[in-house]
Amino acid sequence: MAQPIRKLRIAVSGLGRMGARHADHFLHLTPRAQLVAAFTPDAKEQAWAKENLEPWGVKIYSDYDLMLKHEGLEAVCIATVTTVHAEQTIKAIEAGKHVLCEKPLSTKLEVCQQVFEVAARHPHIKVMCGFSRRFDKSYSSAYQLVTNDHIGRPTIIRSQTCDKYDPSGFFVEYAQFSGGIFVDCNIHDIDLALWYFSAASRGAQLPVVKSVVAVGVTALEPELAQYGDVDNGVGVVEFYDGQIAYFFSSRMNAPGQHDMTEIVGTKGKLAVNASPTIDMLERHTSTGINREIPQNYFERFEMAFVEEARQFTEAVLENKTVPVDLKSSVEAVRIGIALQESLRSGQKIWFDREGNRVDGAAMTGGSKL
Amino acid sequence: MAQPIRKLRIAVSGLGRMGARHADHFLHLTPRAQLVAAFTPDAKEQAWAKENLEPWGVKIYSDYDLMLKHEGLEAVCIATVTTVHAEQTIKAIEAGKHVLCEKPLSTKLEVCQQVFEVAARHPHIKVMCGFSRRFDKSYSSAYQLVTNDHIGRPTIIRSQTCDKYDPSGFFVEYAQFSGGIFVDCNIHDIDLALWYFSAASRGAQLPVVKSVVAVGVTALEPELAQYGDVDNGVGVVEFYDGQIAYFFSSRMNAPGQHDMTEIVGTKGKLAVNASPTIDMLERHTSTGINREIPQNYFERFEMAFVEEARQFTEAVLENKTVPVDLKSSVEAVRIGIALQESLRSGQKIWFDREGNRVDGAAMTGGSKL
Amino acid sequence: MAQPIRKLRIAVSGLGRMGARHADHFLHLTPRAQLVAAFTPDAKEQAWAKENLEPWGVKIYSDYDLMLKHEGLEAVCIATVTTVHAEQTIKAIEAGKHVLCEKPLSTKLEVCQQVFEVAARHPHIKVMCGFSRRFDKSYSSAYQLVTNDHIGRPTIIRSQTCDKYDPSGFFVEYAQFSGGIFVDCNIHDIDLALWYFSAASRGAQLPVVKSVVAVGVTALEPELAQYGDVDNGVGVVEFYDGQIAYFFSSRMNAPGQHDMTEIVGTKGKLAVNASPTIDMLERHTSTGINREIPQNYFERFEMAFVEEARQFTEAVLENKTVPVDLKSSVEAVRIGIALQESLRSGQKIWFDREGNRVDGAAMTGGSKL
Amino acid sequence: MAQPIRKLRIAVSGLGRMGARHADHFLHLTPRAQLVAAFTPDAKEQAWAKENLEPWGVKIYSDYDLMLKHEGLEAVCIATVTTVHAEQTIKAIEAGKHVLCEKPLSTKLEVCQQVFEVAARHPHIKVMCGFSRRFDKSYSSAYQLVTNDHIGRPTIIRSQTCDKYDPSGFFVEYAQFSGGIFVDCNIHDIDLALWYFSAASRGAQLPVVKSVVAVGVTALEPELAQYGDVDNGVGVVEFYDGQIAYFFSSRMNAPGQHDMTEIVGTKGKLAVNASPTIDMLERHTSTGINREIPQNYFERFEMAFVEEARQFTEAVLENKTVPVDLKSSVEAVRIGIALQESLRSGQKIWFDREGNRVDGAAMTGGSKL
């Protein structure tokens, strides 16, 4: 008789919109993981968990610290509100648990760096930030092509995150916690830029930011202005050594979620999702030809989240490097925060090669490189 | 503490290309099912099972009858070679097991009908033929639209199954068992035609075949002719009451698998997969813009197979009607066989409304309806 | 001073929907042609001509024979009702005028053959049937690729002509003259099949029809039945030597005109207009992503008609072979008529290699080739 | 007998790549225009004109001033090198000739303004800058939709001009005259932004620039740096009243010309050319599905140039307002120059509502609007 399979015993912290899905993925779609526990302080989420998780043998906790002590627990997937990501991550690391944390670690750079330092002191613990888009089939195929020199040197990256307009105004209230549109939405695009620009070195060598600049408008939700936020933002990030990434984010994309990315290289271009669709169905009616697109981020990236769970699980079980480098995730937050600051101040922000802010008056344009 | 989840205890029979995948789906991707056993007479497949199934607690059998006696077994997924589908299905039914059987039940109509009769005598047993395409998201969305009268009355269905050319010639050898291209490939398209044409009655009223005619050529594999088969076939099925389905199948589609379907109604048309692609990535290089398509049937329909497993499991556990009606599956074989016969004889074949063959000379054209 | 340009002096016969456009093309968009005369017996068309052609120096005639005597006239473009195509073509040939005649020459095969014989007796006169689709950029690019062996041997051709539904019922009345849907609509598709299948020989060797079979339905206009016609037709043409063409035509395509063609070869496939659109604009609104398609045949093929006029003009001026072979155009009518007959009788029709009708009972299926 | 048609007697100045095409369009494809003269100082171009224009009755000049005196001349299309656009335009206006001038009027703002003033002093003379993209069918359809409030208030415009890489290095040499990538390439995109943002007022109210910022890199042609230019540029223009346009230009697009534009409104988005193709043909071969795109700007916009010629001709003959407002064309140059300056200096540039440069330190970000 064969040896039974060893499964990673994992818990999910937070059972909101994304947390519930993470729980589902680890419970049902990640063969090598076993969801053993879940934490939520919220009564409604607990009720959901009683019905949907407990029957599958998952223990429900209302105390995070207690959950960390669940017998045999090896890893935690943190999907709580952003404000407690860092604290819970640190606690988990210090309790010897591997961590998959939803992006971003924090909307504050120093807090991110603190997590990074704690993780650095526990090198045997796997810590990974959940940049789900990297696990999407189209994005990962593009990465393979870039590393195989299919398009030459990646030079320009354009990437956008456009959400369907939510007339409930939820995102207006959320703006006070989200860190702003560049930290909340474009963080994915920034992560992709860092990923593809470092593809030649397989992630070892992150590109170095030279300047960031951003603008934005409040087209539908003027209330956002009080939080220094916008509902449409455009940001440009210039890297040393001749690379540029530019981003667009919008909270008012009419048909649904449209996230797309182009990687422009010296020999070709890769375009991910230039022509969005939710499936392979087109309707030919008297008004023309029509297709639908995903209604939200999860609908677009569901399988990427599943793949993320699987790859994290495998990395822990087989003691491999996690597929999203933590340093890169901190850098993404740094860039997002700088873009948000530029949006607010209206000023272009400059950095030297060591990452220190410098006076732009002394800097010269990209064409002089 | 909540009641633990009740899971359907299922076995998979046959662990070849598709069987191994069915096993994987029931084992890892169908939360409410538990794969408890698997049968294969093949040594190589048994070795695979030892490595990939046994460690997950699956018992491996080399005797089908013995497997049927596995304690607590409730259902069987049959994915052996077509020639034993019917026999195994009947044995399973008679042993009181629910059955999900790969298409077709048999390449012989009378054998299909025999299965149908056995199933009819065991009304508490669920028997479903695995017409996977119905579980694809695009196809099921199209079905919803048809039932919601989005395109008026479905009138013409065009559907094709085009496989990537396999230079190994496997399909030539296989032709002696497959029943021929219309039974092996277009059976899916025939099933879709029956499904969409009966959508108004939610499947209760199958369309009635009036005539079938088929032609074909052996473009790359002349050896097929000895089995009365071709590598490219075109078939037309005329139904009573003004509906037509026409089909194309090919074994030599250069870029990969391209199955597509159009449902033409009196008010609009639904097109599934007119513009095939494997993901959302396009490559812009000096030779133009390029995209890839799935390389085989499974790559195209993987998630549909998973959905099929889930819906079958749910139907059994909750005692619901299975989503693919067995009578329709028999009818699909009948039409496929008639097309293959027409291909071989060169003659158009006619049926009366009761399904009896009639002499075509007495029939009149469709325009007289 | 350079020699002034010699222009082809041409007349247009018939100024209905298409005739007016031909006049416009020769007048304004064919640099090497000079429209010198136009004929129409219709008062309304004459009024249009007075306003739109006469000011540009075009002489208007209400007598065709008189027009043929217009001083210096060299060529005639015939765009009258189909019933007089042949008579006018013969008169023009006998008057020594080159002829570009709208398709079809006639809906009667013997009349087509008569035109062909007259033309054959006047070898210095250019006679060309206006199969406009051949002059479309996408179709002619496809032809180049076929002749360059890009897809191997063309084996299967699928082609469709789908018109937007015209609720005025015009096409019902027209059905008594049109020759039926296969002669009126699919004639283009038949022509394309002959063209691509003879591409290897650059048109010298037409494929030889072995059998035709057709079915159809009257989905929206039952009145069509009295003329032996339908509003949706499917036809299959089998050629000797292993080639098949299958066709679809519809009068009820909801969004507009959708003509598409696939040429399946042993090494690849060319698809023309699989994903129709009228331009490069897509609308992203709350109902999804929407695009429009051409509303009628002319909107889709406008530039092809212009190119046709230019190539015909050049062929005459430079005494080159006309780009559409007259024999092929007669063959297209023969096939269209046979399909229409099969539609009406319900019977498959067989031909021997010399084009004689033979008894199908003696024939065998395509797979035996 | 009807009154003969009155045609606009026009001359073309400059017979280089674009000039020769303009001559062709006015000669052969603009029914209401008569090309009577052409000027070029270049021997090679003169030889071409002798062969291609003179036989059609066009008089060839090697002296621009002399050409202006051609008897009966009413209008001039200026397609010489950019450096003489302004001078020739002014001369033509002062000689009482209407002018269609290739973009840009000049790469120097003060020169543009000088032309504008001369034109303003001759209000009966039509002066139009040839922003060809506005005459493209997709772009003009988009304009109609915007004016019809199909997408709500236009808020964000993204537009790009990407040329196929020219390994001859022509564009490097040209960079010393072109004004730089933002003035040479993105000028079209800037024009489109001004057009769509002023659509609500039908062009009467141009949006007011608040700030511009640009970055760029020399990925393939480092020699460009000596001219303060780049081969890939990204620019962002912020307008007062909550509108943003952002641009990308590239000299190294591998498959060919890819110009695309998105107009994001509060209720929807219009996308022009998100999925580029040269025609409706796709090739399905063993490497996947492939399509080609236009190889250069003219191939993409040929029909737009023809339409431009027709609309200019009609505006003159019927004394209508020209479809491209001259003030807007000057504004486009002003923005292009500012972007180029920002690229070179690395600094963001600010303007007050009157168009005066102001100190950015005093300005606040877009989110405060």
Automatic annotation (TrEMBL), chains A, B, C, D:
<dbReference type="Pfam" id="PF22725">
    <property type="entry name" value="GFO_IDH_MocA_C3"/>
</dbReference>
<dbReference type="GO" id="GO:0006740">
    <property type="term" value="P:NADPH regeneration"/>
</dbReference>
<dbReference type="InterPro" id="IPR000683">
    <property type="entry name" value="Gfo/Idh/MocA-like_OxRdtase_N"/>
</dbReference>
<dbReference type="InterPro" id="IPR055170">
    <property type="entry name" value="GFO_IDH_MocA-like_dom"/>
</dbReference>
<protein>
    <submittedName>
        <fullName>Similar to NAD-binding Rossmann fold oxidoreductase family protein</fullName>
    </submittedName>
</protein>
<dbReference type="InterPro" id="IPR036291">
    <property type="entry name" value="NAD(P)-bd_dom_sf"/>
</dbReference>
<feature type="domain" description="GFO/IDH/MocA-like oxidoreductase">
    <location>
        <begin position="141"/>
        <end position="270"/>
    </location>
</feature>
<feature type="domain" description="Gfo/Idh/MocA-like oxidoreductase N-terminal">
    <location>
        <begin position="8"/>
        <end position="129"/>
    </location>
</feature>
<dbReference type="GO" id="GO:0005737">
    <property type="term" value="C:cytoplasm"/>
</dbReference>
<dbReference type="GO" id="GO:0000166">
    <property type="term" value="F:nucleotide binding"/>
</dbReference>
<comment type="similarity">
    <text>Belongs to the Gfo/Idh/MocA family.</text>
</comment>
<keyword id="KW-0560">Oxidoreductase</keyword>
<dbReference type="Pfam" id="PF01408">
    <property type="entry name" value="GFO_IDH_MocA"/>
</dbReference>
<dbReference type="GO" id="GO:0016491">
    <property type="term" value="F:oxidoreductase activity"/>
</dbReference>
